[in-house]
Design a protein that fits this description.
Layout lengths: L8 E2 L3 E5 L5 H9 L17 H14 L2 E8 L4 E12 L4 E9 L8 H16 L4 E7 L3 H10 L2 E11 L5 E10 L3 H13 L10
Parallel strand pairs: 5-6
Antiparallel strand pairs: 1-2, 2-3, 3-4, 4-5, 6-8, 7-8
Length: about 200
């Protein structure tokens, strides 16, 4: 795998910027839109924890284990959330796209579809990944539906995989897209972005 370095990924609806300390205030604002940290089945940092979360992500980036991005909604030029390359395995090569969360105001827009297209394109076409993985809480049905709409297939469920902030144990659904599936997945994501949209549609 070529060296994975922080870079800007840009589309029509969204820009993915390497995470930086100066993003703190806008990320807090985005997390407040919907009080996202109160969803028990997610790991969205609370406003008072955002600084420590940025510290942790940048430390993992320095170790080569993670590439965190801040998500810019190009309609407003404001940060709308975060997404991450993590569990980077250069030997395979493969990685996971995760740690993704968005302000409520962008959750029914093409932003996430295009963000995933940018991330997957970079992983498969630039890094030559054999597979890209997605993980989510078994009870996070919105996230599971979104991952499945991408074209990812369920590999399995890791029972009692991790402990959540409230002390409950998470069963983790593991999905993946492999390199042979990528051309069809790419075509489907581009079609989703190009097709006429209705007010009730929810982007992947």
């Amino acid at each position: 795998m070529p060296a994975i370095e922080a870079t800007i990924l840009s589309g029509q609806n969204v820009d993915l910027l390497p995470l930086a300390y100066e993003h703190h205030d806008q990320l807090v604002e985005a997390a407040r839109d919907g009080n996202l940290w109160q969803l028990w089945y997610t790991g969205v940092p609370a406003p008072e924890d955002m600084s420590a979360h940025i510290d942790r992500c940048l430390a993992l980036q320095a170790s080569g284990a993670m590439i965190p991005f801040s998500v810019v909604d190009k309609r407003t030029q404001r940060l709308a959330g975060m997404t991450t390359y993590l569990n980077i395995d250069r030997a395979a090569p493969r990685l996971e796209i995760g740690g993704t969360w968005y302000a409520t105001r962008v959750q029914r827009t093409p932003l996430n579809t295009e963000a995933k297209l940018l991330l997957l394109s970079h992983a498969f076409d630039s890094f030559g990944c054999l597979a890209v993985e997605f993980r989510t809480h078994f009870m996070n049905h919105q996230s599971r539906r979104a991952i499945e709409r991408l074209g990812a297939k369920l590999d399995g469920v890791l029972r009692q995989h991790m402990r959540m902030r409230d002390g409950s144990l998470r069963d983790t659904c593991v999905y993946s897209i492999i390199s042979s599936e990528w051309p069809a997945v790419r075509s489907n994501l581009k079609w989703q972005l190009d097709k006429p949209r209705t007010s009730t549609e929810i982007s992947a």
